[in-house]
Amino acid sequence: MIRRAVPEDVSAITAMIYELAEHQRARDECTVTADQIDDALFGPQPSTFAHVAANDDDRVVGIAVWFRNFSTWDGTHGIYLEDLFVSPSERGSGHGKALLATLAKECVDNGYTRLSWSVVNWNKPSIAFYESLDAHPQDEWTTYRLTGDPLARLASEVS
């Protein structure tokens, strides 16, 4: 069953984010707290959204954490999927596809033109899964990121 996340899901979502970080070999980079997730999803100005996959006992076994983006080229919103994760014991049960299908429906229902996400290059099983859905890599674009000291240095140039 796929449903919108509710406040009671925050601890499960946070735990799954840490599982995802471990899976992506970057556990030491993950510092998010349940309070931050709660504020992002359910605070006074939510900027992030989530759907969960729940099993028959209503235990969260998968998450899709996303936010709206905007294309200046077509003047329409889209969805950027920040995290998609299904518990290893539940993989192959259709939860990942159901989460993506739910976000695709969110796009179609709201007139959004894109559903986008990133995947680490070494994650061959996920890449094969995405390609089985007819998703295509956007390999003509390179993602850049500023964090830590370089981010602070650039910010200090503003007077």
UniProtKB/TrEMBL annotation:
GO terms of molecular function: N-acetyltransferase activity
Residue ranges of domain N-acetyltransferase in the record: 1-156
UniProtKB keywords: Acyltransferase, Transferase
CDD domains: NAT_SF (cd04301)
InterPro entries: Acyl_CoA_acyltransferase (IPR016181), Diverse_Substrate_AcTransf (IPR051016), GNAT_dom (IPR000182)
Superkingdom: Bacteria
Family classification: Belongs to the acetyltransferase family.
Full protein name: GNAT family N-acetyltransferase
Organism expressing this protein natively: Rhodococcus opacus (Nocardia opaca)
Classification lineage: Bacteria, Bacillati, Actinomycetota, Actinomycetes, Mycobacteriales
